[in-house]
Amino acid sequence: MSTTTSEVLSETTLLRFATAGSVDDGKSTLVGRLLHDSKSVLTDQLEAVERVSASRGQDTPDLALLTDGLRAEREQGITIDVAYRYFATPKRRFILADTPGHVQYTRNMVTGASTAELTVILIDARNGVVEQTRRHAALAALLRVPHVVLAVNKMDLVDYAEPVFAAIAEEFTAYALELGVPEVTAIPISALAGDNVVEPSANMDWYGGPTVLEHLETVPVTHDLSHCHARLPVQYVIRPQTAEHPDYRGYAGQIAAGSFHVGEQITVLPSGRSTRIAGIDLLGEPVDVAWTTQSVTILLEDDIDISRGDLLVPSKDAPPTTQDIEATVCHVADAPLTVGHRVLLKHGTRTVKAIVKDIPSRLTLDDLSLHPHPGQLVANDIGRVKIRTAEPLPVDSYSDSRRTGSFILIDPNDGTTLTAGMVGESFASPEPVKDASEDDGWDF
Amino acid sequence: MTTTVAQVAEGTDAPYALSHLDALESEAVHIFREVAGEFERPVILFSGGKDSIVMLHLALKAFAPASVPFSLLHVDTGHNFPEVLEYRDRVVAAHGLRLHVASVQDYIDRGVLKERPDGTRNPLQTLPLTEKIQAEKFDAVFGGGRRDEEKARAKERVFSLRDEFSQWDPRRQRPELWNLYNGRHAPGEHVRVFPLSNWTELDVWQYIAREGIELPEIYFAHEREVFSRSGMWLTAGEWGGPKDGERVEKRLVRYRTVGDMSCTGAVDSDAVTLEQVITEIAASRLTERGATRADDKMSEAAMEDRKREGYF
């Protein structure tokens, strides 16, 4: 934090990223070192860690204590929930979703990765690519995290040998690309010794790439909006009805994908009515164009019936509306999800009644094999699901849009979040699973 | 912002990236609008401190040109800084808002709550707060809590369900996926909502500077009569300090947080402008709470325990 005021005042960009690693891969050490070496751990926090470490008889401060915030976590010495950490360099602000490595916490990894632009997957250089690594790569592919960093850790324990790193990087990259991970950056590190985390390593002069922090600082967070379908879920209708604004009627929402401009012809879904954008307010300031993820208020030329839950899209690029959704899901609740389960489905700003019509398959992340018709999904399971909704929804494929292609299922009885869903095909089903029991006369 | 918009309009090589402050602002506004769309009786916890002031500013922007569709709630410990109460009332009047007050002094006068031997009233806030929430049937309660403040808060959700006793159970939290916030709750339960979850102390100050938001004077360096207790400068006053053996002196100080006078410490400072404050915070080696909050030091899980009971 040794920045000048002008640097602090300058506006930087924000990168959300997640970590994934097995229990002993050194994830806490890496996170601790990133926080510590970027000078984001302040004296009183470090003193608290030192005090507790000493009271437990540990010689060195246990940096994992910085992230394990709950009593149960400290008692058990494990991380049981996602923690969010914040740090900054003069170039960028970071939100780190620090996710637990235990296999039974797949749901937490899904939670952390759902908002991440990048995920760091750790490997122990002595062990190479293991089942857990494949699981993490599969989750990154499933969640469509745009950037993946493979951090080959504990290089100090393999004599900083290039061939060890090269073999692991090659094996992982081939596997990840096959899954559809768009980009892999492999970095040899020692989190314990600090090699290539924040400072370049003197022990690995054969490595010419960036350190972990350099990569985090420079990876692009901008999007090519020319290939994006523009989408605006309507959150709230703003109608002041005051003397000053008697006729103001604005449709407020956060742009989920793409961009909108004044004068553009748009269609309201699911009604299908069309009109033009008369104006865009960016939190009080009129603009000509706005893009993802800005929160805006849209004014339209015609007074048509629009309410919370509707989706504004360009008329020339509207998604189909459907009551039958096929998706890959991760079940996050303790009670299982079963065929026939009546649920609520939240997509964008709309929540509708739905029923689980079929669970065609369950995925084993270790080897990506499919188990047909498992009957139910239990906590942390990933599977394919067919859902019938009570009302038509305009859904995109998750591979096109992480925001309008995602949904959650909610238990209507107690409000529990049951399941995270990603619409459309995924690597988990290279060929659509045929459902022989297709029932056109099915009655909701 | 204007230059970026122009670039896009001209179809040049536009970055389409939001600055970190724009991204945080947009996310917070989205959260305010979700609550307005899904809840019947939301309320904003408003203490007159910088975080709640930023929350109100964001709410005003989220619903402009209409007014904010929420009322405000202040938990008055009876040991408030007069400058902050004055600020509170002025802001409420300026925006035509409705203010609810839950009074700790009231509970002490009625004999429901008992003054603690150490004089701190922060833990006493929980009962008046939760009873007010139940009495007014608030179903969504905005708090200015940030995850960077404390490690129990680092685990807090943006939408955090509280049971009919206003209790937080950190092991039974709903996973929060994408930006699909789940606000479902049974009658009697409510949801605590934290629009500033992803902001840091520095973000809050940078945003205040960028937006030109007015703050109570105690955030800037001023001469004040203080005395030292547990390594912190506390304001001398009728709330119960100084005790015997504690010496009052006049110092140039400012506050990093605003809370109950009995447990909120001042820091030595000569920062009188926003830029000087930001420079000071960027260089500080202490967190906001470590520097100025006595109550968080009581035990390693002090915050977690109070949050479980219903505290923010």
Please describe what this structure looks like.
- The complex is a heterodimer of chains A (444) and B (312).
- Chain A has 444 residues and is an alpha+beta fold.
- Chain A contains 8 helices and 25 strands.
- In chain A, helix 6 (131-142) crosses helix 7.
- The longest helix of chain A is centred in the middle third of the chain and has 18 residues, at 162-179.
- Chain A is globular, with a radius of gyration of 24 Å.
- Chain A starts with a helix and ends in a 21-residue tail after the last strand.
- The relative contact order of chain A is 0.10.
- Chain B is of the alpha/beta class and 312 residues long.
- Helices cover 34% and strands 15% of the residues of chain B.
- Chain B has helices at residues 2-9, 20-38, 50-63, 82-94, 104-109, 126-136, 201-211, 274-283, 288-292, 302-309; strands at residues 42-45, 71-76, 99-103, 140-142, 159-162, 190-193, 222-229, 232-235, 249-255, 266-268.
- In chain B, strands 3-2-1-4-6-5 form a 6-stranded mixed beta sheet, with helices on both faces. A 4-stranded antiparallel beta sheet of chain B has the order 8-7-9-10, with no helix packed on it.
- In chain B, strand 2, helix 4 (82-94) and strand 3 (99-103) form a beta-alpha-beta unit.
